[in-house]
Amino acid sequence: MILTITKLDKIMKKGKMIILSGPSGSGKTTISHCLLSKFPELEFSVSCTTRSIRHNEIHGKDYYFLSINSFFSKIKKYQFAEWEEVYPNLFYGTLKKEIFKIWKSNKHILFDIDVKGGLNLKKKYPNNSLSIFIMVNSINILKKRLVIRDHKNCEDCENNEKNINYRLNKAEEENSYAKLFDIVLLNIDLSQTKKKVIQIVSSFIYG
Ligand code: 5GP
Known about the structure:
- By secondary structure, the chain is α/β, with parallel strands linked by helices.
- It is 46% helix and 21% strand.
- The longest helix is centred in the last third of the chain and has 19 residues, at 157-175.
- The protein binds guanosine-5'-monophosphate.
- Guanosine-5'-monophosphate is lined by residues 24, 47, 51, 82, 84, 86, 92-94, 112-114, 117.
- The site of guanosine-5'-monophosphate has 13 residues, from strand 5 and strand 6.
């Protein structure tokens, strides 16, 4: 779902946005950490989510962890630039004020968001956004990554497995949207992918 961002339009001429999307487990979070350490002029857009916090996450740094009521109250008040029900009953969204805050501080924005959210932002900001789709060519590799990550983060194994299977099914659907992104990168070797993304982002920011 896209919402209008009128105030932001005035300052968006200078600010750029880099949208990293791809299936859960594709490596986009690792890549986004790499970009943030490489480019001081980039700032991560912290999203809101209604999912529960993982053991290594910090409220306000990784996400703003909200109750469903609080998330829906923000929807009603038109506070989101975009939001999606990324998984059943799990909502994620980008606050307009997060975008506003980053551009106001003269930085460019880095998003790590789902495919539909990414495409919505790209549609909204066609001239100053760069959308990058991180793809994994094997569902087995994706499964391995998700199992390792979720095993570390949750004690509820049954729910974990359901969750992983859902994410894998969703990954197949998400891959079909890849062609709508500005750039598609097949993440076979993470260090090679990082190098390519750094080059691409560098020419987008400085070029
Ligand atoms: P996770 O729960 O694994 O952190 O994230 C699940 C998915 O939600 C990932 O694909 C992530 O990129 C996406 N996501 C995170 N923040 C947002 C957001 O603000 N909007 C949308 N549409 N997706 C998001």
